[in-house]
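As a next step, we paired sequence with structure tokens, yielding the entry below.
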Amino acid sequence: MPSHEILKAKGGKEEQSTLRRETETDMRRMNKNWIELEKKAKDRVGRRMLVSGLLGVTGIMLINLLTVVVSNSIIIDFTT
């Protein structure tokens, strides 16, 4: 007796539908995992852009301030 006839005799359609349900459940779970990974990646990129932007502006301001102070030899006295 061929294997597909044995499956039909044993109720192979039930086994196939169970396998299909399990496969669909696994695929949904994997899709949710991918969506979560994409969200985390976008958050990291956003944070990196924010931090680099802030450090970039601050760094430029500090470099400009140090350049002015060193070139003019200005000593600022905050005690008066």
Summary: The chain has a mean pLDDT of 73. The two ends are 104 Å apart (CA to CA). Residues 3-72 form one domain.
